[in-house]
Amino acid sequence: MYKPNSPWTWALVSVSLVQAAIVLGFEAYAFARFQTSLRGNYGGSNPTHTIPTFLALYIFGFVYQLILVYDALRLKNTIQVIGLCIYNVGLLVYAAVQMDQIQEAVTELRGNNHILPGVWETERPYLIAIPCVIALGTLAMCIIAWKLYDEFAWTIYKHISADLRMKRRYLTFQIYIALLKFDFFFFLGFTIQFIVVVVKHNNSEFYLTIAAIPVTIIILIMAGYFTRKENTPGMLAIIILYFAGLAYFLFKLVRMYQPGRRQDYDPVRRPLTTFAIITVILIILTIVNACMCTANFGRGLKPHIAGRKLESEEEKFAN
């Protein structure tokens, strides 16, 4: 099993753990305060789902980030470390969006006399603190990523040698694999919000959305497999599926703002829009990198990818 073996690898793990602990603590307090302040027969209305959804996403987001941190350090993947800094910026944007969304939910419930007065005033400092903590964590992670870039550079040099063209192919492969890992989080984050707040459980759309989760996981796993095996027909099929996914998210994005459906998305329109836009950008980047990876098939990269895997196994046994 891999263990951090330098000050900067330990620093990345420490920053990620401390950030997750503080933010989840604040979110848990906001959730508890919100739930205990509800009163009357609010009938499970959509506004009451807002904070539980945010909390669930943050728990998943930070746990997944810790997994990606470990994975990036284990593989000495500089691209993934840089991606984690961008990922943290995404969490920062989400934290900023949730403030307005929660305030709107509290205001609506207060207007219907379904929540005790003073809830927003109590929660506001904690909700302001969350993006501040994430911003500080992002800054620290960027500094650490810069240091790790130098630390991991020699490992990549030994692995790929001095062939500049091969390095570029390997870089494209690393970017593509990292994008697949981040695609998973943002797709699932969008889907969780959509299922919890928007879709009615007796609606066929609910079951189709649930079914899309395992299908997406299989597609992402097969995408990585076909790239490592340099399977061109498989990659072409995956790229077609990416375009289908892009069409799906663009459809959802437009539908959120259609007059007949706007009210269904009110409790989470801003965070859903944020996730949809980020996911669309990620899918476009994934399609571009998938095409570049496919163009690199048969040019000598496959042994280096296999060698990278064996090297990691040797390190695992050495530790």
What does the model show?
It contains ten helices and no strands. By secondary structure, the protein is mostly helical. Residues 309-319 have low confidence and may be disordered. It has helices spanning 7-37, 50-75, 78-111, 119-160, 164-198, 204-229, 232-255, 262-265, 269-295, 302-318. The N and C termini lie close together (7 Å). The longest helix has 42 residues, at 119-160. It is flat.
Percentage beta strand = under 5%
Distance between the termini: 7 Å
Mean pLDDT: 84
Topology pattern, helix = H, strand = E: HHHHHHHHHH
Dominant shape:
flat
Low-pLDDT runs of 5+ residues are 309-319
The number of strands is 0
Helical percentage: over 70%
What radius of gyration results from the CA coordinates?
22 Å
Quaternary structure type: single chain
Number of helical regions: 10
Structural class: mainly alpha
**Major sheet attributes:** none
Helices and strands, with pairings:
Layout: H1 7-37, H2 50-75, H3 78-111, H4 119-160, H5 164-198, H6 204-229, H7 232-255, H8 262-265, H9 269-295, H10 302-318
Main features:
319 residues, mainly alpha, single chain, flat, 0% strand
Concise summary:
This protein is mostly helical and 319 residues long. 83% of the residues lie in helices and 0% in strands.
